[in-house]
Amino acid sequence: MLVRRIPPATIRFPDGAVITLSRKIASTAADVAIADAARIAKTVGNSSDPMGDIEHIHQHLDTLDVLLKSLDATADQLDAAAAVLDAKPATETGPMLDTATLARAVADALVAAQPDADLSDLRIAANTLRSAAGELREDAAITRNKRAKVDAHCRSAVAEAMANDRADPLDLDRSYETDFTVPKMLNADAIRTAAREHLLELRNDANAKRAQRRTEKRRELSAKMQEMWR
Amino acid sequence: MKTDNLLEALGGVLKSEFGKRDERFDSLRKEVDSRLSSLDGNEVLKSAAQAVMLANAGALKTVADDILLRRAKLVSGTPPFILQELIE
Predict the structure, then answer these.
(1) In this complex, which of B51, B67, B68 lies closest to A1 when CB atoms are compared?
(2) Which residue among B42, B66, B77 sits closest to A16, beta carbon to beta carbon?
(3) pLDDT tier at A1 (50, 70, 90 boundaries)?
């Protein structure tokens, strides 16, 4: 019989690893990346291998980029296959599209021979394809937000590593992004000082915010108390 | 002799077994013949088309179902660090 076996949707990583695609895999991996990058950002200042730590968490960003690309590409394929099953045009190509085209062509022939032919299985398949595509797009959106958090942790980890005496700030500056302007003179000490100033600023900001929250809470509380006593 | 008795018994069993199988085969062939003669060419084509449509739509649905219902699995290689705990 004329049936095309379709391989399951997979993600291929540059180092050769291949995994099957599943909904929520990318956003869950992003959770792991956030936790790991946050941990490294806290510890890299005293790490014995700061360069290794920094490279390790930046690889998470690369992994997430591969995942995001695969999610988008697969969602496009699923949507296009669903469109073809519904007899709508699609511009994608691939095994799923070939199979969808064949199924639709046979369905059209069937309807020509028997106008009341039952095409409900075709509709069910199309709906399943569309909902899988929707899940993947939703997961991609969530993963994009989480990737931004990983990126923020990576940037502050680089600043911490630049402030660490065991790392080479010049080397770090050549390879990674930071949140502050790195002095453009080729001087390790200058970069280190700038990194320390940046971190100090961050900490002061965080403390200021915390203090502000505290005063706000106190004001709220006293307002409530006055309300009660009135 | 013991072996003679044994062979005789075995022969008997095999003989009746073959006989039964022939009977079954004959009845099956008769049934298939009667069905074939009652088939309408148009119906054959339609049901063949239906089968091709179902099989191909089913193959597509399987891909989508795997994404929706199954956990991610390792096919080959070593997965990146952040995926290692998440896949089987």
Answers:
(1) B51
(2) B77
(3) low
Give the residue carrying structure tokens 């049936």: A3
Note whether B67 contacts A59, CB cutoff 8 Å: no
Do residue B80 and residue A63 have CB atoms under 8 angstroms apart? yes
Average pLDDT, chain B: 83
Contact B79, B87 (CB under 8 A): yes
Model confidence, pTM: 0.74
For B37-70, the three-class secondary structure string (H helix, E strand, C coil) is HHCCHHHHHHHHHHHHHHHHHHHHHHHHHHHHHC
Give helix A50-85 / helix B41-69 axis angle, nearest 10°.
160
Mean pLDDT of the B15-25 span: 80
Report the alpha-carbon distance of residue A90 to residue A4 in Å, rounded. Answer: 19
Residue A146 near residue A31 (C-beta atoms within 8 A): yes
pLDDT in tens, A176-197: 888 887 777 777 888 888 888 8
**Taking CB atoms and an 8 Å limit, are B68 and A23 in contact across chains?**
yes
How far apart CA B60 and CA A77 sit, in angstroms, is: 11
d(CA A23, CA A191): 43
Strands of the A10-12 sheet, one edge to the other: A10-12, A18-20, B74-76
Contacts of A63 in chain B (CB under 8 A): 80-83
Q: Where are the domains of chain B?
A: 1-38, 41-88
d(CA A151, CA A224): 41
Closest CA to A132 of B78, B53, B67, B57: B67
Q: What is the mean pLDDT of residues A42-54?
A: 88
Span A121-173, pLDDT tens digits: 899 999 999 999 999 999 999 999 999 999 999 999 998 888 888 888 888 88
List helix spans (H) across A114-187.
120-163, 169-175
Integer Cα distance of A157 and A53 in angstroms? 9
